Amino acid sequence: MSTLSSSIGIFGSALLILCLWVRILPWRIKIPAWRGLVFLAGAIILLIPFGELSIAAKLRGLVGDLSMTSLLAMVLISLSYITGRDYFNRYNRYVLLLSVLCAALFLYPMTMGLTFFDPYLMGYGSYGFAAVVFLGALISWAIRAYVTAAALLLAMVAYSVGLYESRNLWDYLIDPVIAIYAAFWLASTVFRNLYQRLRISMKQADA
After folding, report:
1. Is the separation of the CB atoms in 92 and 140 below 8 Å?
2. How many angstroms separate the CA atoms of 181 and 155, rounded?
3. pLDDT in tens, 138-189
4. 70 φ, ψ to 5°?
5. Number of structural domains, the chain?
6. Could you tell me if residue 80 is inside a domain?
7. Which CA distances in Å does 62 have to 55, 59, 87, 136, 199?
8. Residue 123 per-residue DSSP state
9. Which pTM was predicted?
């Protein structure tokens, strides 16, 4: 399982670089087949060892293994880029990233010793915590936040089979990378909405 764990970790790091690349790419390729080839070529470059390690493996050494939530989100972003279809629409993105941010605000400050309660310990085989995660998946499905539901269920399955070396469910649910991305994305979304409302109010006042 360690070989599989390592392979998935390196794959996740390669996806992270590729997703960042397509987000900041100043030009767009119109033909899906060409987008797929460019994406594949980028993946090969990132996975080819230069010296002892590939670029993706070196990044994995810095950020660690990414959570199932991150992997699912990046796969959907990649598919959306390649095919031109929106597999990760705004509603699903908003619910997922808001859930990640809430979980991160609950987990990381207290884990760093700001309180006497350490929620990270709940990830070590707590049936109650697993039940809460499963309930979250059911609620997400009920409100049609299918990506969030899939991420929670995928994390539970990966944890149950020991896909990563970590035996803590939290490590399968969230990671610092997606937590930071969630904070920036939600902050920029709120700022953009407020700015648009301000512009509309100013135009109405001038009219």
Report:
1. no
2. 19
3. 999 999 999 999 999 999 999 999 999 899 999 999 999 999 999 999 899 8
4. -65, -45
5. 1
6. yes
7. 11, 5, 29, 30, 42
8. G
9. 0.88
